């Protein structure tokens, strides 16, 4: 079967390849042609050493899911290293709040869970377990280990949990060990945040008040 359309154009540049993707055709048709061309053309390049790839989508606006579909196809060729994706929608994505990732399970003693962005974790962080994020940490479960939010320096990050009994908290560069009475008091739904470079703990019901200036939770 041959592809008569020309919705995907692959051009060589000095330091890699540019994929020019038509912004007028149906998205599924674009994906089909992209798969076909990766399998049937430019094999001397696509099966060789590592090649940097820039993707140009023209005026086409795509969702995060559609972006992943394009990347999944390109990743089938192990030597293609995606360097950039040029799309109007993606430019707006960078400016807006980052999405929140949902994970579930259990972080046991000695284990470290790391995520780039905001994290909603459905499960428990056991004593000796660690969870770190560049953004916020929301735990629907017990936080009995160590949590570090805003590890890249985000002082507006927060740490929230249904059962709030951490062994240590960190937000950006501020470290707080919980007071001794935390071990004996009744644990509940609370969150930690920074105020004047000091760690503060408050009831979960007050999280909206804290975030009011941001208009929405970051990514939630």
The number of distinct structural domains comes to 2
CATH class of the largest domain: Mainly Beta
Helix percent band: 10-25%
CATH level 3 topology of the largest domain: Pectate Lyase C-like
Q: By helix and strand content, what is the structural category?
A: alpha/beta
> Which percent range describes the beta-strand content?
35-45%
Strand order of the largest sheet: 5-7-9-11-14-15
Number of beta strands? 15
- Shape annotation: elongated
Number of helices: 5
Cα(first) to Cα(last) distance is 45 Å
Model regions low in confidence, pLDDT < 50 over at least 5 residues: 91-95, 213-220
Describe the protein's architecture and organization:
- The protein is built from 5 helices and 15 strands.
- The chain has helices spanning 27-40, 43-46, 64-74, 88-95, 207-211; strands spanning 8-13, 16-21, 51-56, 80-86, 100-107, 112-115, 118-125, 130-133, 137-143, 146-149, 159-164, 168-171, 174-176, 190-195, 198-203.
- The chain has a 6-stranded mixed β-sheet, with no helix packed on it. Strands 6-8-10-12-13 form a 5-stranded mixed β-sheet, with no helix packed on it. Strands 1-2-3-4 form a 4-stranded mixed β-sheet.
- Helix 1 (27-40) runs parallel beside helix 3 (64-74).
- The longest helix has 14 residues, at 27-40.
- The radius of gyration is 23 Å and the shape is elongated.
- 22% of the residues are buried.
- Residues 91-95 and 213-220 have low confidence and may be disordered.
- Residues 105-201 form the Septum formation inhibitor MinC C-terminal domain.
- Keywords: Cell cycle, Cell division, Septation.
- Interacts with MinD and FtsZ.
- This is Probable septum site-determining protein MinC.
């Amino acid at each position: 079967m041959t592809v008569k359309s020309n919705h995907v154009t692959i051009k060589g540049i000095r330091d890699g390849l540019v994929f020019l993707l038509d912004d007028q055709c149906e998205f599924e048709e674009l994906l089909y042609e992209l798969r076909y061309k990766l399998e049937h053309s430019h094999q001397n390049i696509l099966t060789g050493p590592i090649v940097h790839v820039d993707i140009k989508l023209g005026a086409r606006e795509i969702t995060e899911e559609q972006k992943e579909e394009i990347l999944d196809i390109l990743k089938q060729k192990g030597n293609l290293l995606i360097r950039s994706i040029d799309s109007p929608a993606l430019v707006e994505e960078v400016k807006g709040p980052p999405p929140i990732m949902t994970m579930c399970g259990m972080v046991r003693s000695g284990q470290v869970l790391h995520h780039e962005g905001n994290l909603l974790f459905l499960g428990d962080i056991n004593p000796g377990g660690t969870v770190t994020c560049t953004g916020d940490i929301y735990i629907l479960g017990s936080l009995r280990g160590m949590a570090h939010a805003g590890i890249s320096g985000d002082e507006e990050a927060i740490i929230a949990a249904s059962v709030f009994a951490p062994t240590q908290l960190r937000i950006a560069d501020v470290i707080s060990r919980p007071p001794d009475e935390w071990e004996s008091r009744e644990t509940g739904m609370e969150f930690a945040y920074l105020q004047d470079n000091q760690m503060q703990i408050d009831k979960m019901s007050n999280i909206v008040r804290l975030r009011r200036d941001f208009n929405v939770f970051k990514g939630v």
